[in-house]
Structures are given as structure tokens and as C-alpha cells.
Amino acid sequence: MRLALAAGILAGLGGCVMNTATYTIDRYGMTTGVPVTLRCRDTYEVFDRPDLRTLIVTTNVLSETLGGCLEGTPRADRQRQVARLFFQEKTNRPLCVITDERDLTGRHREFTYRCPADPNAQPPRLPARR
Q1: Residue 9 DSSP code
Q2: Torsional class of 107: left (φ above 0), alpha (ψ -120 to 50), beta (otherwise)
Q3: Does any domain span residue 44?
């Protein structure tokens, strides 16, 4: 898995600085990617480090190209949506929220997040309407 992640990152780097690839592989190379699909087959992979409260969203260029229905939506917006869907649909941490982000390579965006101290916390209830 680490070799596959490294190959994917290196293939997408093009002219980017090598220390970005080293950072990404060192930080996320031992994690397993989780596929998250947006509308129309746009699939991304999320590599999560709960111990560091960070995750990285990697873009699948082929999937983006063939998906097509999200044309006009900036890649960064799609990556943010993937990060939110990851918490809501793929983990038991739906109340985690993104606190910061940074673009690593255009195809790779890293997010910092925080989660409630109580993993069983429920969303706040709105007061009843009178």
C-alpha cells in the first residue's frame, strides 16, 4: 500500500518540489486510503491520521475527467466536500469539523480537523417551534 501511495503521489507531482512528496509519504504512507465518491462517479481517496487530526484528499484525475458533471466546480471545493463526506459517511465521527487546510500539490489537499471529546456526542437539537 505504501508503494502504491508513493507511486500515485509521484506520478501526480510533475514539477513540484520533491520535499512535498517526501512529507506526504512520510506522513500518510502507512495509512489505508478510503474512497469517497461525489456525484457522477468523481472518486477521491482520503488518507486519515486521527492521531495527528489531519487527513489528505487525493484527486483521481481520470475519475475527474470522466465524471464530468462537476465541471465548473473548483477542485479545492470538491476536495473540501470529500473531506466532509468522509466524516459523515465513512467514519463514526460525523461531528468532526475541518479547522484548516493547505494545498500540497493541486491534486493533494491536507486538512486539519477537530472532533468532540465525546465520540458519542449528538448534534445540538434546535428548540421546538411554537
Answers
A1: H
A2: alpha
A3: yes
Q: What is the pLDDT of residue 103?
A: 94
The dihedral through the CA atoms of 15, 16, 19, 20 has a sign that is negative
Q: Does residue 55 lie in a domain region?
A: yes
Q: Which three cell numbers stand for residue 87?
A: 466524516
In the predicted model, residues of the chain with pLDDT beneath 50 are: 3, 7, 9-17
Q: Any idea what DSSP says for residue 1?
A: -
Cross-strand pairs, 97 = 114
Residue 10 has a pLDDT of 47
Q: Residue 70: name the closest of 106, 39, 107, 108 by CA.
A: 39
| Domain count of the fold of the chain | 1
Residues whose CB falls within 8 Å of the CB of residue 59, separated by 6 or more in sequence, listed in order: 12, 44, 75, 78, 79, 106, 107, 108
In a domain, 128, yes or no: no
- pTM higher than 0.85: no
pLDDT score for 8: 52
For 38-70, give the secondary structure using H, E and C. Answer: CHHHCEEEEEEECCCCEEEEEECHHHHHHHCCC
